Amino acid sequence: MSISSHYQAQIECGNLTPDAAQQAAISALDALSRSLASGHSNKGIYFYGPVGRGKTMLMDWFYEFTDVTDKTRLHFHHFMQQVHKELNQIQGVRDPLKRIAQNWAEQTSLLCFDEFFVTDIGDAIIMARLFEALFEDGVTLVATSNCHPTELYKDGLHRDRFEPTIALLISHCDVISVCGETDHRFSKGTTANHYFVNDKQAFWNAFTNVGGIFKPGILEINHRLIKVLGANESVACFDFMEICSSPRAINDYIELAEQFSCIFISELPLLGVTPENKDVAQGTEEGYIRPSDTTQTRIGDDEARRLIALIDECYEAKVLVAFLAAAPISQIYQGEQLAFAFARCISRVTEMQSWSLKPEGL
């Protein structure tokens, strides 16, 4: 089945509404899919647009319907984590990034990245050589992103080291906008099924309904301890400040998403309300972009940064996150520094409201 025929079928049965921007991207993806299935080497596709425009859905369909056996689809920062791990394992190699690229090229001719974004200085510095070697070895790249390649790693430290990567992406991929006017996650309205504003009783009822037991304790995540308000084998509940204010790394959130099918977070406050005068934390304890001189760092920016990382991991793993919050998710972050990134968090939490919450997990 082609991507376009599947798309049309979804429209006819009422699951989707027509979107001109999506249709343009689908035409390009279909053409690439046919060419790859015929054994041809091709320019890839980098398609970008705001949250809720169906980029991940289109990527999923492209990956499913493209008749290529040696293909790989993963979240971009998971890919970079694997690259860093391989770098640590390689000793005494003159060009380790070329060796790593060769290893990937031996396993896959089609590399699909969802959520291509760069915030870590370590990633930014090595990507030019890595991608140059991947393209030299004939790997075709298809990626989704919220921004045009020229906007990647904007205001990042030593961005000049990243600019060759931008040039490589533009040279080896057709850059396609999926900037339709509709955020499809909101198109049919939303009901806050798993997001409770100042309603502790409903929040705890939802937790117990899926087998959660309110019993404070301690979990070990990546050899570090984290306090938990309650848990069972598939569900856990945390205080927001415990999971997003204390030092946490992306690997912590990856492990949580692997361990639980649903995560409850209590006492989500407003974030980014009050200005502060201190240096921003480097992401989730890693080299995130520092604020530019024109944006004011605010109290809660670090916590918001970690919340974004947590929701990204849970969304990718199809792990539902339920909240007891001080305000609707659209009003939680009131700062400037992370407004663009937090829009993705809002959209994903909103989409989660339509997910099923069952004792057995999703």
Secondary-structure blueprint:
Blueprint lengths: L2 H10 L7 H18 L6 E5 L6 H11 L5 E5 H14 L6 H12 L2 E5 L6 H16 L3 E6 L17 H10 E5 L17 E3 L2 H10 L4 E8 L2 E8 L3 E5 H5 L5 H10 L2 E7 L32 H16 L3 E6 L3 H4 L6 H14 L10
Parallel strand pairs: 1-4, 1-5, 2-3, 3-4, 6-11, 9-10, 10-11
Antiparallel strand pairs: 7-8, 8-9
Keywords:
362 residues, six-stranded mixed beta sheet, alpha/beta, single chain, Rossmann fold
User: Taking all residues together, what is the mean pLDDT?
Assistant: 88
Strand content: 15-25%
Termini Cα gap: 27 Å
* CATH 2nd-level architecture of the largest domain: 3-Layer(aba) Sandwich
Main sheet: strands, sense, barrel: 6 strands, mixed
Radius of gyration in whole Å, from Cα?
A: 21 Å
Strand order of the largest sheet: 6-11-10-9-8-7
Number of discrete domains: 2
Task: Give helix and strand order, one letter per element, not per position.
Answer: HHEHEHHEHEHEEHEEEHHEHEHH
**Overall form:** globular
Helix content: 40-55%
Q: Please count the beta strands (DSSP E, at least 2 residues each).
A: 11
**The CATH C-level class name of the largest domain:** Alpha Beta
Structural classification: alpha/beta
List low-confidence stretches: 280-291
* The CATH homology group name of the largest domain: P-loop containing nucleotide triphosphate hydrolases
Explained architecture:
Mean pLDDT is 88; it is low at 280-291. The strands form two sheets. The protein has a six-stranded mixed β-sheet with strand order 6-11-10-9-8-7, sandwiched between helices. It folds into two domains: 3-177, Rossmann fold (3-Layer(aba) Sandwich); 195-352, no CATH class. Helix 5 packs across helix 6, helix 6 runs parallel beside helix 7 and helix 11 (301-316) crosses helix 13 (339-352). The longest helix has 18 residues, at 20-37. It is α/β, with parallel strands linked by helices. The chain has helices at 3-12, 20-37, 55-65, 76-89, 96-107, 121-136, 163-172, 200-209, 240-244, 250-259, 301-316, 329-332, 339-352, and strands at 44-48, 71-75, 110-114, 140-145, 173-177, 195-197, 214-221, 224-231, 235-239, 262-268, 320-325. The protein contains 13 helices and eleven strands. 41% of the residues lie in helices and 17% in strands. The chain starts with a helix and ends in a 10-residue tail after the last helix.
